[in-house]
Amino acid sequence: MWPYPRIVAHRGGGKLAPENTIAAMRCGLNHGFHAVEFDVMLAKDGVPVVMHDPQLGRTIAGEGNIADFTSQELAAHDAGIWFGPSFEGEPVPTFEQVAAFCMQHGIWMNVEIKPVPGFEETTGWTVAQSVKHLFASQVDHRPAALPLLSSFSFEALQAAQLAAPEIPRGFLIDDVPADWHARLLDLGAIALHVNHQKLTPVLARAVKEAGFGLFCYTVNDPVRASLLLDWGVDGFCTDRIDLIGPDFAASRLARM
Fold first, then answer.
1. Average pLDDT in the 64-71 region?
2. What's the pTM?
3. Residues involved in catalysis
């Protein structure tokens, strides 16, 4: 149900590097992580770029929407200086650039499809097609190495399912709806991704008994992380890659 790494670096480097940049991916790798989560949306030219916010202003200076700029224009923006002067000049990367870095270094990817509002289906389709193209040689031979596509957007995941049904999908939710099981079946999803603060032992057991993987976001306390694993959670992402290492689950079992 969950053939993937259990501990995943959130947005590449968690709290230690500017999110969703190559520098963040490198930071996670330097801390021993070979599993990362990051966000992908479409630029004006239809190129998937690695960004979380649909607007400028937080991680890159300026005003406007991501969909108003081409991928080249976004690459010219500084996505690192907000975090610290040592990251000045870090560009907004394309999905293909981040994927190439991860593939080069053997890093598994949880790709969150994060559509700019109004571009849900187009984003889901385009990102899934990109993953299908990049990992064509591994679909039949190394399925556990395939990225896992996730999204809060049901429409984006539906489009991804149509574009590349062989690429696995996880449904992201905050408040768990009563029909979560039906939604997972409709999407052909393999996992439910849930806010750990909204998870209960009863729900965790129900998800696992239904045959799905269970992934949580964003877990930054080791005590809470241990409790979630006790509940049967398969994996989680963390910002505190300095406190919760990539071997946290295995080392915890070794101490028991």
1. 97
2. 0.97
3. 10, 52
